[in-house]
Amino acid sequence: MSRLPDRLARLAGMAACVAGFARTALPGQLPAPRFVAPAVGHQVRTKTSHPAQRRHVVGVYDEARDWFVVCGGFGDEGFLNDVWAFDLGREKWINITPGPQPRLDHLAIYDPRRESLLLYGGDAHRATKFHDLWELRVHPGVSADSLR
Asked: pTM, whole model, 2 decimals?
């Protein structure tokens, strides 16, 4: 049985905190998405390392490991390319690896068959935007403890 439905409210709250902003629809646009049921969550405080504050980041859910994975964005030090996973079972951040070239406004999905994060495009305020595709794979036998 999937743990995903049990985690939706919690992940939605985390995603809203990571994203850092919300947008309402302009006239003629579709309305902004709304939760059907109220989300219940809590702020998770970790004692160990964690990602720097950022905005315009992407996040995906890795159901096999019960991880919420975030990549890139823009923080106090500029454009970011780090990749972090939050282990929802242990409530602990894990610094996985550097990602591709630093960027914001990129898209990502998680492919459970390949156990990988697929990341597309983005922007770093250069002459042209990124139109590249990257795959970040964490091999199935790799444990969270070995990634610290």
From this structure: 0.69
